[in-house]
Structures are given as structure tokens and as C-alpha cells.
Amino acid sequence: MGRFDVTKLRYKTPEEWRILIGCEMGMKNHELVPMAMVASLANLKRGGAHKVIKDLSAARLLCWEKAKRGKIFGYRLTWQGYDFLALRALTSRGCVASVGNQIGVGKESDIYLALGRDLQELERLKDVKRIENDEENFEFRLTEEDLSEDNCEEIALKIHRLGRTCFRAVKNKRDYPGNRKHTSWIYLSRLSATREYSFQKCLYDRGFPVPKPLGLSRHIVAMELVRGYSLCKVESFNGHEILMFNTLMDIVVRLAQHGIVHGDLNEFNIMVEDVDREGTVLEIPKLKIIDFPQMISVEHPEAKEQFYRDVNGIRRFFEEKFSLELVDGLPDFDEILKEQREQEAMALKQQADLENTDVIDFKMNLMTEARKVGNAVQGGWGDLPTMKREDESDTDSDSDSTVEESCESEPEPEVKEPKVENQATESVSGVSQEFSEKMKSIRSGLTEITGTTSVAPEVIKLRVKKAIELNAYRQKTSTLKKADRMNGKNRKVVKNDIRSTVKGGRDDLW
Length: 510
Hints:
By secondary structure, this protein is of the alpha+beta class. Among the domains are: 6-83, Arc Repressor Mutant, subunit A (Orthogonal Bundle), CATH 1.10.10.10; 460-509. Helices cover 48% and strands 14% of the residues. The strands form 4 sheets. It has a 5-stranded antiparallel sheet, with helices on both faces. Strands 8-10-11 form a 3-stranded antiparallel sheet, covered by helices on one side. A hairpin with a 5-residue loop joins strand 10 and strand 11 (281-289). The radius of gyration is 30 Å and the shape is elongated. The termini are far apart.
């Protein structure tokens, strides 16, 4: 598909959006969602939901299928329906204004040109304006004037679409699903987009040459548009070939020092920018790396193999393309880790001598930070190691592990309402009842612009359970009614036989 048909987004009713979100929530633990469950999760009556579902199926946003030889049947979201949900959330936030043509395609994703806004930059400029003017009643929220088309710029939308025929071995070659049993292609695409955004944000914050991430919703990542082309299309660097190669080697070494290995750093995932935003030609081109979902930790069993595959792939490309000899001076994986651990030990020793020493730059914790970002933004990436503090009791650690397990099993973006159980909890956490109520109102307002549901997971489970029980009751009721009709017919035949017997029998039987 070369272009999105996003005109249908304007004419969708609230009931249709509720049906799509209800089907999405049902697909968390169902491959095919029954009709009764979709209606229950959407909080609609069965008759009204059936009409809405019929219209959505005609628009190919929902699909009705059978499984296990017709024994199981229900509805599922199509790729177009999932695209609509993600685009609606991004447009509601103000991150995306319009979608253009397709500018790239890969085995795991599609790239589209779009118009959008850098909300973080707009908020920063507004904060600077508030500080400069020193206004007391300054409204910090972004207004319609701030979200006008004048503040829009060209951005890129990366839409993850796993499960294509050319790359069906993604479940074996990537560690997206882990030990999870529910591994539909839509769910895996969501995990891939979450990892993409998490790594990209952590790398950008640490000064790596990557596109700036602007937003995330489900399987769509909005990012800064790279005004260039891939390294495979470069014919010459005008004498800067050695400089470009050394720059790429420095990037590979820095990634390893921060505890990760790219795993797929080749000429197709390296972008070259030769002009800036104003269109001025750069004397020395800039390099940017893309495609981050397959990144692994340096502690991974295959980390060393992936590291040398990246190094040798870049070396081989420069040797064949620009006729260079690049054998000496290549980075050593074991030596990098050894030096990094020595720096960590030295920093920890300094911290023991001097209090309040910041050692975060020395620790290889980028993988952990990316995992936290993914779980905070969309959830479902994976469980985090449990760290027990001195002021925590055993019950607190148990509750933390329960929350982490719930994040792993239920990856949907849900806003959980904070609750204060007792005064002891308030004293430990330092959160008062007034602050909790304030946060509750803020989060409920956030759900209105993000398009995500504010229903708690326990409520969703209860609704699903009630929908299943209702469906079973209806099937049982229809079976009993049919049995009653048959019993009534049998009773009528028996009564007629008794009546004829009392009268002396039927003459035609003799």
C-alpha cells in the first residue's frame, strides 16, 4: 500500500471506536474474540454492537473467522483496524497531523512520510517563555495556537508489520516473545515497536547519532525524519572515507561500553545526511544509525558473535566499495568489556570514598533503562530484576513482583489509578491522599487525549468473565428451550395415547 486511506478516520463514531478498543482488549488473551465479549468490553448492547461490528467488517477493520474446524469463531482486528487505533491516539495527542506517501519498506516495517510536531520541544519553549516572562498565572498546557499547522514539520512514521512471508522466522531469530504463549503477529509488532522506541529514546538522550523519537502508539513509532539516504547508495565521501569508518567503529565501541550490541548494523541501517534542515550542503556528512529492536545485551550468549558481525560487515563494505585496506585497529570485544569493568570498579571505589558521586555514566545500564522506558510507555516488554530496598518489607517486595508479572502478562497501555491503602503506606511512600486525588484527575484527563482506556485490569478481567458466563448461559438456555419443546411434544403424544386407550383404543389399529 503506497498511501494510507486515513479519510475514514474522520467519520468513525464513538461506538465504532469503542468496538475496536474492546476487540483489542479481548485479543490480549483470545485469538478470536466472541461477539458477546466484544459487546461487553465496549459496554454496548448486543443488538447495537452487532450493527456496528457489521459496518466495521464491511470497512475491513474487523474480521470474522473460524478456528479448530469451526468449533471456535469470533472477531479479530485487521492490520488496518490496528493502524486506525494507533493513528487516532497519535493525532489526539497532537504528535501527528497528517500522513503522506510511503518512502521505505522492509521485511519488518513500513516507513511513511507525515506531518507532525515535536511536543517535547514545544513544551520546552513554553517553559522557557514562562521563566522569561515570570508570569504567575501562566497556562502551561499546549493551546490550539501551539498545535497549529505552523508548528508542523516533516516526520517519519515507522509502522512495524511482523509476519510477512519474507521473514516468518522472526520468532526464532528475535527474542521478542520470550516465554509468552500469546504471540500473534499484531502482538509481536507491538513489542517490536516498544523496543524500537525505548532504545531510540535512551540512545538519543545519551548523545548517540540516532533520529529523535517523537511518539509511540501500539505498533507505530513517530520519529525525526532523516534527510538523507542509506549508506549502500553512497558512491563517494570526497576523501572522508577513513573518517566515516572510524566514526562507525567509535559508535560500535560506545554501544558496547553502554552494555548493548546493535546486532544488525550494516549499510542498510546506516543513514548518511549531506544537507541540514535549511538545505545547506554539509562539507562532512553526518551518520545516523536506525533499526534497534534486535539489540541485545553484552551479557547475551551471542553478543560477541553479533559484535564482530557488525564490525566485519562495516569493514567489508568499506573495503569493497572504496578499495580500502582496514585490517589493523579493529575493536576487540573482550578488551572493551575489560576496560569498562575496570572503570566501573574505579568509579565504585571513588563513590565509597566520596559521597554523592554520580557513576551512572560508567555503568552499563542502558539495557535496563530501555526496558524500564518500554514498560512505562506501553508495557509488556519483559520482567525487570527485583531490587529490594532497605526500607521495604517482604510484603512490599511481593507486591512489586506481582506488578511486574502483571506488566508482562497484560501489555496493553492502561492508566492505573493510584490507591493509598493505609497511613503506613503513605508514610513510606510519602504520597498524601490529596496528591493521589490530584494525580488521579490528571491521569483521567490524559486518557481523553491519548485514546487509551482507563479501565483497570481487574475490571477488564471481570467483564471478560461475565461475558463468558453470559455466553455459556445463553447457549445453555437455548438447549433447555429446545429440550422443553421436545418434551412438550412427547408429553402431548403420551396424553393422546392415554386418551385413546381410555376410550377403548383406535379402530384403525385393529
